Request: fold
Amino acid sequence: MSGRSLGFHLALLAAGVAAPFVLPAHAVQFAVFWIMVLFALTWDTMGGQMGYNSLGNILFFGLGMYICALTQVGIVYNIAEYTAANGAIHIDFTNRQYFEGLALGVVFAAFGAMVVAAALSWALFGLRGPYFAIGTLGAAIAAAELTSAWDWVGGGQGIAMPVFPGGPGMRERFFYFACMAAAVACYLFLRWLYRTRFSLAINAIRDDEDKAEALGLHTGRYKMVAWSISAFFLGIAGALFGNMTGFVEPLETAYPTLTFGIYMVAMTLLGGKGTLWGPVIGATLFYTLRELTWTYLLGWQYIALGVLIMVNVIYFQQGIMGWVRSRRPAWFGVKVDEGRPPAAGARAAGAAGE
Amino acid sequence: MWSNVQILTGAPVFNVQLLLNGISVGAIFALIAYGLALVWGVTSVKNLSQGDMVMMGGYCGWELSKHGVHPIAAILPVAAFMFVFGWIIYRLVIRRVIQLDLFTSLLATFGLAITIQQSLNHIFGPEVRTLRSGLATISLFHGKVDITEIRLVAVALCILVAAAMIVFLRYSRMGQAIRATAQDPRAARVLGVDTDRVYSLTFSINAALCGAAGVLIAMVWVIQPFYGIAYSVRAFVIVTAAGLGNFSAVIVTALFLGVIEQYSGFVAGAQFQQATIVGLLLAILIVRRLALLRHRKALQ
Reply:
C-alpha cells in the first residue's frame, strides 16, 4: 500500500470508528450499512469478477442467521422445546453463555454456509448465464419455504434470539463494531485475493469459460471456491444481523429475496461491477439514498426500486466506477495515446475495462 | 405423510381427483410456459416478469368484473389490453436489452417484475382475490370426485389458444417470419423480415397469453400481487425441462408438472408445493449433469 492509499484507508477507518459515537442514535443504521457493503462485495466476487450472476446469494445470509441462532439457543436449551414454547421461555443467559454462544454461532454460521455453498455448487454450476441466475433464485425461494415449514426451527413463527447482556447503548455499539469488522475483513481479504492468481483465473472464467477450461484451469474448483468465499462472509453477516434484530423469521428477516437479495445486485451494478471499490461506492450511495428517501415515498419505494434497476441496467450499465474509468482512464493506470483523438482513446479504455 | 399415501392406494378414486386437478392447472401452466418459450426462442430474452404479467391480467379481469362483466367474457378484452401493455413494455424496455448480454435482459425483466407486483400491491392491496364464474360443480363417482365446470372451461380454452397459436405460427405469413427470426435473426433480416416488428409482436402475444391465463387463474384459483414469482419459477422449470423450440414438449411437461404438484401437495402438505418444483428443477439439472459427465467420459 502506498502512503496516500494507506492514509485514505486509515481516514475511512477512523470515520467508521467515530460514527457510532458522533451519531449514537443511528448506530443500527450504520451497522446495516456495513452489512450492505459486505453484500455488495461478496456479490461482486461472483457476479462481477467471475461473471456468474447469482440472484440467490441471500440463501447463505439466511442460513448463517439460522445456524447461529440455533447454536446460541442449543448450547443452553433443548431447541424443540424452545421453539415450541414460541418465546414463552424466559431466556436468561449469563454473560459468558451469551458471548460463547455468539462466538461459536458466528463460526458455525460461516463454515456451515460455506459447506452448503460447496455442496450446492456441484448442482448449480452445471448452469451458465441466466440459467444459473434462475436456479439460484429458485434455491433461495425454496430455502425460505422449507424453513417456514420446518417446526423444529420455529417454522413461520421464527425464533426469539437471546437478549444482549448490558445497557441499551452497548448493544448497538457492539453489533456496529462487529458488522464493521466483518465488512472490513471482507474488503481486505478480497483486496488481497484480487491480486493473486485466483482472480486471474476467475476473470478468465468470466471472459470465456470454455477457453479457460481448455487452457487447463479446473473451472469447477475455482467456481466452488469463489462461491464458498461469498458464502463464508454472508454467513457471518447473517449471524450478526439476526442478533441485531433480536428475532429470526424466515420470510422477512432471513431470506428476504426481494429486498436484500436484490439490493446486492442493484448496489453492485450501480457502483460498477468487476471493481473492488465499485460495490463499496454503490452500497454507500444506494443505502444513503434509501435511508434518506424511503420513508417519504409512501409505498412507492419498491416501485421506485424496480424502475431504478431497469434504468440502471438499460442506460447505465457500466456503473459509477465504469463511467469514471471511461472519463478518466489515467486514474486507473490506463495510458491514453496522445496522438489519437481523446474520445476514441476513452472508448478504447472503457472497452478494455469491461 | 405416510397415511396420505395409504389413502391414495386404498381409495384409487382420489387419484382421479388429483389427476383431474393436476391436468386442469397444468393446462394453465402450459399457456404461461408457452408464452415464455415463444419469447425466449425468438428474442432470447428470458422474461422473469412472466408471472407478474399473469397476475396483472388477473387483476384486470377482477376490475372488469366489478363493473358487471362476466369473467369468461372478460378474457378477450383483458388479452387485448395486455397485448397493448406488452407492446409498450417492448418499446420501453425489451427493445433496448435484446442486443445486450443475457443477464442484462434477465435483470431488466426482474426490475419489471418488481415494478408490476408493487404497483399491483399499491393499487389493489395485498388481499387474496378470486373471481366467481357462477358455474356449477360436477360430481363423479357418487360424489367422491368433484370438478368445477370452470376448470373444464379453462382446459378447453387452453387447448383452443394453443391450437390457434400453432396454426398461426405454422401457416400465417407473420408466423413464418417469427419462426424464421427464431432460427436466425440476421438471415431473416437480410431476407427482408422486419425483425423489430417480429420481436414486438412476439412479446405482445406473450403478454396477451399471460393476461388470458391470469383471468383463468383468478377464476380457478386465487390471485395476489406477490404470487406472480411462483408462476415465473414454474414457467422456467417447464421450459428448462422441456428444452427450447419444442412446443409440444412444453405442453406435456406443463401437464406433468401440474399433476406432480397436486400429488406432492396432497402427500406432503401444501406448504411444500414450491419447494417440490424447485427440487424438481434441481433434480432435472443433476440428471442432465450426470448425462453430460457420461458423455464426457465417452469422449475420453
Q: What stands out?
A: The interface with chain B takes residues 53, 55, 123-124, 126-127, 129-131, 133-135, 137-139, 141-142, 145-146, 148-149, 258, 262, 265, 269, 299-300, 302-303, 305-310, 312-315, 317 of chain A (CB under 8 Å). Residues 27-259 of chain A form one domain. The radius of gyration of chain A is 21 Å.
